[in-house]
Every structure is written in structure tokens, then in C-alpha cells.
């Protein structure tokens, strides 16, 4: 089967590369880079056993196997040995972020997890997505169950009258009335249905729209339950008037928003649980200690064992003690690392036994008071 864009001939001397790998590569954890003839990194990978992993590329069938296609674009292979599989995973991620290799981008799998996103701009938009946006977009999560998440965010938007239109739609608030000539018309039917305040057509003031957007964000951050309170009030009112069909309609929204609130609480708790000192045993005795805060590695050093080593490592741990446990967004630049750490400890339950909460680690290794 033909592969679009496949190279007819390899760009490098594959026989020479194979001999070099067989002679020099060791079966130990590593991060490796594939370079094209110009020296550009075209692919970054990680291996628990480097030699075996690299040799597998030369056994792959071209052009059917993606490994063979990468190898055909490769002129040189470089690698860095790592203390462990975890270190290799972390190193791979950071080198991908640094070099942005073309094959890594092309071959990334779609995410199975979703995020609630809050855009910047004149009229913030709250929506669901699986890709990572720019620094102006706030990301909350991660969440499982994209369909239910989208439904929940839609109901939150409808309840508060927030827009769900394209991000590049021009915004004109009520106080900008001089921009309108003739009859004002919203860009979609949601305004007519009462589920959007119409920031595209001057039907709402900027202050009012931003107040509603802040209320939605506070709900996602589990700071304010006002949207849920309103649903409860409307449901109760309908029941008291014996409008049972309407009460049932509001009850469905109550259940959906309750699920969203629980999902946001769980997502925050999951991140907070990933705050500890993790001792990772090295494959060849090169043990490492990692200070992890909300799922990102803040510092690392050789695992301390002696009193002097512990004292030297202590400032790295103390620097991240008392960090704000704010249920706020995840910085876009940290999302991939957070997902990596989350996946590692889910797949490796035994690794959690080698973790100590930051405050507990500091108490265990508090400096001893000395007498005068």
C-alpha cells in the first residue's frame, strides 16, 4: 500500500547507522533523537531499553510502518541515558517541547481526556476541548466523559447567557451603541431563545456579561454555587405552583450541574493529590528524588540519603511547601507534564508507595536544634 509523502530512498546510510547502534547503544533507559541531514531533530523518542528499541526501527517494513518512515528521514541518531523509565518519559516530553519535531506532531494520538476552557478577549467563552490552547486560554481538568462534559458546560452557558459562538466573532456591548446602524440582530437564535445575552449585538453591557462569565468560572473552580442555587430556586418554585413538567425540566439541569460540580471537585482533588516528594529508583542505582506539585515536576536531584545530602535537598522541597492549593486553571505549558505524571502513578501503583507529602517530608527532615 502506497503511503502519501513517503521517501523513495533513505536520506542517511542505514547500514552505517545500524552498525553504530549495535556497537554503542546499551540496553538502559534513554531519550533518543532522530536528526535529518541538516541537523534538525525530526523525532524524539524514549526507551526503557535503548539498544533493543533502536534496532527495532531497522526491522520495520517500509513504508507501512511509521518507525521505518521515521528512519528513512534520519541521517543521525543521538541519545542521552536516563536513570529510569520515569526520567526517560519526562526527558522525552521536555525534548519534544524544546525541538517540536515534525514526526512527533504528525503522529500524536488524539487525547481521550477533555478540558473546560475559558477564553480571553472582550467576551470570554467557556467551552470544552481536548487540545491545548495558547496562554490566553485557561484550562481546567482533565475530565473523562467528553459528551457529558460538553452537555454540562452547555447548560451552564445557557443558564448564565454566555456565548458559544466562534472566538473571532466581533463583540459590541450595549454601551457601544454608536457602532450600530438600524435594527440590532444577534448572530444566532440563542438570544431569541433566552439562552444568550447577545454580546455580539449590543444587547448586554460589558460589566453584566463579565459578571456572568466570572460566576461561571467561580462555579468551575468550586468557589461559588450561585448557578446551582438558581436552579434549585426555580425547581422549588415550579413544584410549589404544581408545574410538575417544568419542575422536572429544572431537575434535569440540577442533576447535570451537580455532576459538573462533582467532576470539577474531583479534578482539583486529583491534582492536589499529586503533590509530594517522589523517590524513583534508578536502573543502575542512580536514584532520583522529584519534588512534584499539582502534577508538575518542580525540582529534582540525586535522592538524598546522608544527613548532609538531606540538608542540601531540603531547600528545594521547602520552596514548594505552602504553594497555593488554588483550584485554578492548569497553565497550558504544564498540561502535557501533568497528564504524564497522572498516567505514571495510575499505571504504577507501587510508585505511590515511594512518595511522601511535601509537608510530611519536611517534618521528617526538620533541622535538629542544637544547644548553645
Fold and architecture overview:
The chain has 372 residues and is of the alpha+beta class. It has three domains: 94 residues, 3-Layer(aba) Sandwich (GIY-YIG endonuclease), CATH 3.40.1440; 148 residues, no CATH class; 91 residues, no CATH class. The chain has 14 helices and ten strands. The strands form three sheets. The protein has a four-stranded antiparallel sheet, with helices on both faces. A three-stranded antiparallel sheet has the order 2-1-3. A hairpin with a 7-residue loop joins strand 7 and strand 8. Helix 2 packs across helix 3. It is globular and about 80 Å long. The N terminus is likely disordered.
What would you say about this model in short?
The chain has 372 residues and is an alpha+beta fold.
Features of the shown structure:
four-stranded antiparallel sheet, GIY-YIG endonuclease, 14 helices, disordered N terminus, 372 residues, three-stranded antiparallel sheet, alpha+beta
